[in-house]
Amino acid sequence: MHADTFSRTFTVEEAASACDTLAGLTGLPKARIKDCMVKGGVWWSRPGRSTTRLRRASTEVKPGERLEINYDPALLALVPAQPELIAKAKHYSIWNKPAGVLSQGTRFADHCTLPRLAQAKLGSRNELHPVHRLDREARGIMLLAHDGKAAAKLGELFRQGAVAKEYAAIVRGIPDWTDLEVDEPLDGKEARSRFHVIQSDPASDMTLLLARIETGRKHQIRRHLHGLGHPVMGDPRYGRGNKLVEGLQLMARSLAFTCPFTNAPKQWAVPDLPFPLVD
Predict the structure, then answer these.
(1) How many domains does the chain have?
(2) Considering all CA atoms of the chain, what is the largest pairwise distance in Å, rounded to the nearest integer?
(3) What single-letter DSSP state applies at residue 124?
């Protein structure tokens, strides 16, 4: 973290605007407080209510309420890549998430998350809800619900295994198999992945795979492929000899389900990863 990074919680002692209160308590300029608030680094706790992000600088806070500020100037300075809208329905939308964009925010910020970026692109007053996750370093299709009720309905599809997701990955090495199912547990929980070889390139010693997962453990595809000795190229966490300046070569390439609002079958896909990679 940046040397000036901090996280502090204060109990409000006198009524004032949130911005003025935090500026007085932290010594930060009001412009920096406002920037931190807009980007999701300030949280507001009131008696009898759940803690929420506080974005409006002029909001009046009262004695006994609590303000939490999480300030990281390096994080706040980040400018995220913009997502692409693939399809929009009444209750949800489908997006192509760029690498580097988060699925969900942290206590410090949410301006680099897909829901916030998508909300701005749609011009929506309501916050959007991620129904599933995709690693920050990965790219590809993600589903966002437009309200809490839609998120619950769509989330149930995932819990029931009624959503078909397919991933593409470029890995190091040439597998000696064409199709393989892996059921190696992860973090003490069952984890099942299926892999299918699309194309190998002996010149670069790389292979393009399709992956399907029946469970959703953290970094499941990346960890299973690493365990097989074929780590994903560009993975900053798993594997050796797989570094790549282009970044992680893992993409959520397709998504399909029966819409719970119309009962119509839906399917979306993004273009495949370029292969073989060109220097």
Answers:
(1) 3
(2) 69
(3) -
